[in-house]
Amino acid sequence: MKDVYLFSGFLGSGKTSMLTDVIRQLKEKKLKPAVIMNELGKLPFDSQAVEKDIPLKEMLEGCICCSGAEKTEAQIQSLLLDSDFDVLIIETTGAAHPVEALDAVFSPLFADQLNVKGIITVADSKLWLHRDTLTPQVRSLFLEQIRHAHLLLANKTDLLTEAEQGQVVYELQGLNPHAFILQTTNGRVPLSLLEGLKATTQVDKADIVKAPIASMQLGSRLVDFTDQEFTQEQFEDWVRALPETIYRMKGYVPIKGIKNPMLFQYAYGMVQWLPEYIKMPAKLVIIGENVSALPVIGAN
């Protein structure tokens, strides 16, 4: 499996500085990185920091999430087929929500080939102290990027006094008590810290629900429905019983009486079914908090 790191963080927080330094460390360990970089503008300014010998996919003028998710899936599939790499780094735009970013990574077609190590969020410490100056929408996104991180970098600490540094770490811990917080300058993080991350990602048969209850963190679960089928009513009853902390699901669900598994998508309470005209693998990706404790349909 390929290790995957999602780099998150608000605009100007220092993600690209972190990216270039992590690439340097990977190369020193003789590991081959590949990069997917998402930028909002028409010109790939940030991607110019990536060396020419590294497989690179860019998304310009758009978000890695929502309508861009299909493009991102195609890019990952292309990398898996055509490129020789050990580690995939996805640097999301500063305007991306971590849930949507994770959603873009997971396709039931290749989710079992990827090992998502975690979401690394770079937080601008100075901006954190002045977050009340942001608009409500921007502040909400800033907080969500921090809340869902598996590893938090309190960056630009060289611009703060010791008292301010302590305040930032204390307040970030209050918002996200599960993430390890590292105070950084120029986004420099030891590769060993990234390699030690373990996101709450599981690959299960549908009748396996014995995983221990994980801490309330954003994670994912790939469920295999091979040799099972349900009525649409059974499946939707299960969906309605899910907690609000399940944000996204997508995959192919075998429905009784229908030849091929149907494409199923779920986002924030909304369900969509679409017929498939070829036989797709009967797998479902679930994204949310505490996914390891979720009773899966078909469980004994």
From TrEMBL:
<dbReference type="InterPro" id="IPR027417">
    <property type="entry name" value="P-loop_NTPase"/>
</dbReference>
<dbReference type="Pfam" id="PF02492">
    <property type="entry name" value="cobW"/>
</dbReference>
<dbReference type="InterPro" id="IPR051316">
    <property type="entry name" value="Zinc-reg_GTPase_activator"/>
</dbReference>
<dbReference type="InterPro" id="IPR036627">
    <property type="entry name" value="CobW-likC_sf"/>
</dbReference>
<comment type="similarity">
    <text>Belongs to the SIMIBI class G3E GTPase family. ZNG1 subfamily.</text>
</comment>
<dbReference type="Pfam" id="PF07683">
    <property type="entry name" value="CobW_C"/>
</dbReference>
<feature type="domain" description="CobW C-terminal">
    <location>
        <begin position="227"/>
        <end position="292"/>
    </location>
</feature>
<keyword id="KW-0378">Hydrolase</keyword>
<dbReference type="InterPro" id="IPR003495">
    <property type="entry name" value="CobW/HypB/UreG_nucleotide-bd"/>
</dbReference>
<dbReference type="InterPro" id="IPR011629">
    <property type="entry name" value="CobW-like_C"/>
</dbReference>
<keyword id="KW-0547">Nucleotide-binding</keyword>
<protein>
    <submittedName>
        <fullName>GTP-binding protein</fullName>
    </submittedName>
</protein>
<feature type="domain" description="CobW/HypB/UreG nucleotide-binding">
    <location>
        <begin position="4"/>
        <end position="181"/>
    </location>
</feature>
<keyword id="KW-0143">Chaperone</keyword>
